[in-house]
Amino acid sequence: MAWDLESLRLLWWVLLGMAMMGFAVCEGVTLGITLLLPVLAVADGEKQDLIGRIAPSGLANLAWLSALVMIVFAAWPIAYAVALASFYPALFLLLLGLLFRPLAFFFLEDCGPRWREYGYKALFVGGLLPAALLGLLVGNLLKGIPFHLDSDMHIRFLGDFAGLFNLFSILVAATTLALLALHGAVFAQLKTSGELRLRAKAMVQRAGLAFVLLFAVAGLWITHLEGYHISSEILPNDPANPLAKFVKRGEGLWLDNYEHLPVLWLIPALAFIAAIAALGLAKWDKSYWAMLASSLCVAMVVLTFGMSMFPFLLPSNISLNSSLTIWDSSASPLTLHVLLWVAAIALPAMAICSRWLFGSFAEKVG
Amino acid sequence: MLVDTVVELSRWQFAITAILHFLFIPLTLGLALLLAVMESAYVWRGRALYKAMAQFWGRVFAINFVLAVSTRLVLIFQFGLNGSYFAHYVGDVFALPLAIEALGSFFLAAALFGPYWFGWDAMGKKQHLCLTWLIALAVNVSAFWVLMANGWMQNPVGAAFNYQSYRIELSDFAQLLHNPAALAKYLHTVAASYVVACATVLGIGAYWLRLRQDDALARLSYKLAAGAGVLALGVTIGLGDSTPTLDNPVQQAKRAAISGQPDSGLLPGIEARIRNGMQAYALLEQLRDGDTKPQLLADFERFKQDLGYAMLLQPLHKQIDEASDKHIKLAAQSALPAHPGLLRGLYLLMIGCGIVVAFGFVLAAWGGMGDKAMPDWLLSISIYLAPLPWLASVAGWFVAEAGKQPWAVAGLLPTFWAVSSQSVTQLLVSSVGFSLAYLILLGLAVFLLRQTVMSRRIVNKEA
Questions:
Q1: Which parts of the chain span the membrane according to its record (chain A) (predicted)?
Q2: Who contacts B79 (Cβ-Cβ below 8 Å, separation ≥6)?
Q3: What is the pTM (predicted TM-score) of this model?
Q4: Cβ burial, residue B247 (10 Å; 0-12/13-18/19+)
Q5: Closest to B235 measured CA to CA, from B182, B194, B291
Q6: Phi-psi sector, B160: left (phi>0), alpha (psi -120 to 50), beta
Q7: Is the peptide bond before B156 cis (omega within 30 degrees of 0)?
Q8: Any CB–CB contact under 8 A between B113 and chain A?
Q9: Chain A CB contacts of B288 below 8 Å
Q10: Which of A186, B243, B346, B418 measures 20 to 30 Å from A145, CA to CA?
Q11: Which residue of chain B comes nearest to A328, CA vs CA?
């Protein structure tokens, strides 16, 4: 047992971040392309061409989602329990959106034109709905969720579906949509040719500008948004029990970490720079470099979100002290230890595997 | 506590999503290995027939695999959506094997499927064969980890309650890996899956042979399936599933139910455990109030493994530590399977199917030898044989899971404690929604499979 609990929890927070970035960068391409499907591709052949570019990596990207969910479950069991149960209706819709996608990816080619039209519609919904909902969830995580923990850790939820739709969360959802549209369009520009490529190129500019604007507005809003802060002493080596601390809430507290460690400002700055770089590179037809820039942008946006929340995983807005942080909602040291080695090897391997799927293999198709 | 409707709806929703997911698993698992064997034969011998075979069955595999992956996604959310207290209470142990699977074999199988599907012409023969073998390996390893988690719920070893975090935590990973319930379950379930796959291949092969006796692809598939089927069935029956022979009260009750013997002999033991659990519960209250005297801790350690039994009292009497003898008797009764007749019936159905299928496979293997034409009656039997292993699989799964009730985790956590506090409307809407979506998926799968079998489509081109 080389690591103490504090380091384990910190390491797991890093691994969770890696999984989130991996998921966002990889699955972001599929979501971005499918939600742009009706806009980018007009003719049936174009749609098939576009789908052919993302189908080879389609299942792997869903596997990123399940890896992310399982990391939360195994390393932060109570956070998994609270997050899934509180976002129940949203996640139900998200799952419905994703359920038909694999079938459409692999079997649409063989269907008649009428079935294909249904398939394209299912794919479009399967891109738009999950992308918007994921953004909505991120917005609500920053706002805090209405849950309460009993002394025996029974979880009570006092929110409802309508409660998810507050102005700030809708703004975050719009930002997410713009970001994924940018990411998908850059990929489409890289992988296609002719008319399709020109349309993708134009879309990169529109989506990119929208994202930069929306991201800036969201950033400004955060300075006035109620953030959360642990006001009692932090005991990072204690057994996991979320009820042993005090939490306060206040305007602008999500910027606390940046004030303590100004070098962190580089992360959101890098997100802006990468987005603008992707725009420029796409304009000058340096598609490959634009793809790298937009991937960096997606990763940095995820990191900005994580850094602002640290050390919170799920703040509660009705019972502040029930909030879950990385210090008090983790799994036991033994579980964290066993899984640490698995994840430390698996996550980089998954990233390499995805890079291979997007790169060398997908080009040979169609 | 929660309304009964919420508990019932949550259980139904979980059962529906789990059973429909499970429908796609046995064929995927068994067919993957057969595919690898067929493709190896092609790469080694270079005959076009072997390639056509690998590609045709590859498409059948693909339909099942793709649906197995997407329905799987719903299942990993279900533990949190509907079982959030379960997720908190045992997640530290239960999620570990599943996370290992999600990060390892599941990702591998899902990631390699794209190249497998699109790569027949784009990559070299040997490279592609490599992919097929890796997928076959990965789905089998996946099943191992999933059944580790499942077996742990039948026989929770290597874990203990921690009063500070108020949940079950892992205490010994090696013990979790060597769980006798999980190992027996793995071998039994995987072998049964191979039987399902072989019976399906056999049935479809026989269907074609009835149309044309000189159909080479069908003949070869038939032979392969009959041979592999006899082997897999021998393993399935030979090993059996030793889970019910384990010596914990939950498995004893299950064993009593399926053997049709009265199970009232178990009641005194369960009542004693409930009383122990009540002690543990009372001590736990004191511990949480900050009293951590060594004597108190030692007492709690002595009784804590029966804490789950005291939870059974909750629907009968809100204040667990003040329950009367009458309540204890009722609670003990509720720990026994509610419908022993149903369990016994399904158990016998599983055994019966197994015996019939065994005869069928031996007959098919004998009739399929050599190159002479096969009689129509044998082919008809082979066709009607196909659904039986499936029925046996589902019945066996039901006996194992329903026989565990009222427990979510045997002896540790009753099912009614495990569910989330969702609203009835939310559960109704989502249950109907999931059921509809799954029905549509199932319909599409049947449509695609039918189309594939009838027109003999191969992986991504017309034959």
A1: 12-41, 62-81, 87-108, 120-142, 162-182, 203-222, 263-282, 289-314, 334-358
A2: A73, A80, A84, B86, B87, B91, B94, B95
A3: 0.93
A4: exposed
A5: B194
A6: beta
A7: no
A8: yes
A9: 151
A10: B418
A11: B165
Measured CA to CA, the distance from residue B223 to residue B217 in angstroms comes to: 10
Residue B240 φ then ψ, to 5°? 65, -175
Structure confidence at residue B461 (pLDDT)? 47
3-state SS, residue B213: coil
Query: How much is the average pLDDT of B346-353?
Result: 92
Residue B9 in tokens = 């709806």
If you search the block for the tokens 């742990």, which residue do you land on?
B152
Of A91, A105, A338, the CB nearest to B77: A91
Q: Which of B81, B170, B433 sits opposite A332 (nearest CB)?
A: B170
From residue A199, how far is each of A137, A187, A205, B33 by CA, in Å?
30, 12, 10, 44
Measured in degrees and rounded to the nearest 5, phi and psi for residue A40 equal: -75, -50
Would you say residue A160 has pLDDT above 90? no
User: Touching check for B434 and chain A: CB below 8 Å?
Assistant: yes
Question: What pLDDT score does B9 carry?
Answer: 87
Dig out the tokens for B354 from the structure.
């197994």
Q: In Å, how far is A304's CA from the nearest CA of chain B? A: 25
Q: Which amino acid is at B116?
A: Y
The two three-digit tokens of residue A299, written as one number:
């990763």
Winning range, highest mean pLDDT, from A193-197, A295-299, A315-319, B288-292: A295-299
* pLDDT at residue B242, as a whole number: 60
Quickly state the pLDDT bin for A366 (edges 50, 70, 90).
very low
| Cα–Cα distance for residue pair A279/A182, rounded to 1 Å | 9
Residues from chain B contacting residue A239 (CB–CB below 8 Å): 162, 164-165
- Write the single-letter amino acid at B22: F
Closest C-alpha among B148, B17, B101, B174 to residue A73: B101
**Amino acid symbol at A229:** H
CB A145 within 8 A of CB A314: yes
For A211, the token pair is 């994202």
Strand partners, A148: A156
Residues 235-294 (B) with a CB less than 8 A from some CB of A: 288
Contact A234, A191 (CB under 8 A): no
Pairing of strands A324-325, B407-409: unpaired
CA–CA dist A143, A145 (Å, integer): 7
Rounded to the nearest integer, the mean pLDDT of chain B is 88
The ipTM is 0.93
Chain B contact set for A332 (CB, 8 A): 92, 162, 165, 169-170
Residue of B nearest to A64 (CA): B107
Q: Is B173 on the interface with A (CB under 8 A)?
A: yes
Q: What is the nearest CA distance from A263 to chain B, expressed in angstroms? A: 32
Instruction: Give CA–CA dist B253/A352, Å, rounded.
Output: 49
A110: which chain B residues are within 8 Å (Cβ-Cβ)? 457, 460
- Residue A366 and residue A196: Cα distance in Å, rounded? 15
Chain B hits for A12, CB-CB cut-off 8 Å, are: none
Of A56, A65, A240, the CB nearest to B114: A56
